[in-house]
Hints:
- The protein is 59% helix and 0% strand.
- It is mainly α.
Amino acid sequence: MTLPTSPLRxxxxxxxxxxxxxxxxxxxxxxxxxxxxxxxxxxxxxxxxVDCPERESxxxxxxxxxxxxxxxxxxxxxxxxxxxVAHHKxxxxxxxxDLQEVYKVYLMCSCDYY
Length: 114
């Protein structure tokens, strides 16, 4: 693996996934110190080449990224987001009861993040 010559990544600017990979790559390197840090940076740089499909449900992503949506705001967004995530796969129509249920999940999950 080619070691980068650019400055090392800034820890607090990395995502949690990048931090985990960076730490594991650093710890696994046989020579601690700058060589291990450069190796870990190179490993994290390869993450952009990996296509990770979206696995987070829309209501969980909303809870993580956007607290305080009203039901009307959530409903409008959720119906569109569901179509995007499904990516041309047919989805059963959602009833108002279904939407109320996923909104409850959103509200409960919001407590996990804030």
